[in-house]
Specification:
It is built from eleven helices and no strands. The chain is an all-alpha fold and 232 residues long.
Length: 232
């Protein structure tokens, strides 16, 4: 393990042990067995150190999400992903607070990737005829609700001593977004049409470029997709 990895590991541990969620560069340097100039050379300043520590934690989290093998039921995969997100927050409360409460620059790339991975599952659910709302709104709603309850658990544990409240919020949220099964008569084509209509409207899929169509073509495409998505 080199100096950089050692310092990041120590910072994460000191943050986890801190009652205030704060840590000094002096304490990190002493615990890591390096001089403060080494720390500044590697990370620039304290904010750079915190960002690097957050990035490392999120990279570990995303590694598990990338390695997850998609199941037959995309909604079940969304549920599992929700639970992994909450478990990550509870395992790294100080880093999670810093990330989402503005204490340091959030790892935009990592968060964007987490959002995209969730979006892929939601699109699969839409293709299976399981969505009640469009895919873009569904993805944003799930991410907001999951992040919200995770933050509540790590910032106000005295109000939420039982982490199972995350299960309750998960079930209520997903019940409003997904159907228990594809609606009677809903085909995979209809589900795909609904997903494409959402991508056309919100620009959520790079494969659907609204600029490639004229206004008249876009209107006609929306009409066709609407008919296909509503077909019995």
């Amino acid at each position: 393990m080199d100096h950089r990895e050692r310092i990041i590991e120590v910072t994460a541990r000191l943050l986890a042990d801190s009652s205030t969620g704060e840590v000094s560069t002096r304490a990190v340097a002493e615990a890591a067995g390096v001089q403060q100039p080494t720390l500044y050379r590697l990370f620039g300043d304290k904010d750079g150190l915190i960002r690097a520590t957050i990035d490392a934690a999120f990279e570990s989290y995303l590694g598990g999400k990338r390695a997850a093998v998609p199941g037959e039921d995309p909604v079940a995969d969304v549920r599992e992903g929700w639970d992994r997100h909450t478990a990550f927050a509870l395992a790294h409360p100080a880093l999670y607070r810093l990330t989402f409460q503005g204490g340091a620059d959030a790892p935009g790339g990592a968060l964007a990737e987490a959002y995209d991975l969730l979006g892929d599952l939601v699109v699969r659910a839409g293709a299976a005829g399981r969505l009640r709302i469009d895919a873009d709104r569904a993805t944003r709603t799930i991410m907001a609700a999951n992040t919200g309850i995770a933050l509540a658990l790590v910032t106000r544990p005295e109000l939420h001593p039982d982490a199972s409240i995350s299960d309750t919020v998960r079930d209520v949220t997903l019940a409003g977004i997904f159907t228990d099964a594809a609606a009677p008569g809903t085909s995979a084509v209809a589900g795909a049409a609904t997903t494409l209509a959402s991508a056309l409207e919100h620009g959520t899929d790079e494969r659907v470029d609204a600029a490639a169509f004229t206004a008249a073509e876009t209107a006609l495409l929306r009409e066709w997709l609407g008919r296909m998505g509503g077909a019995a």
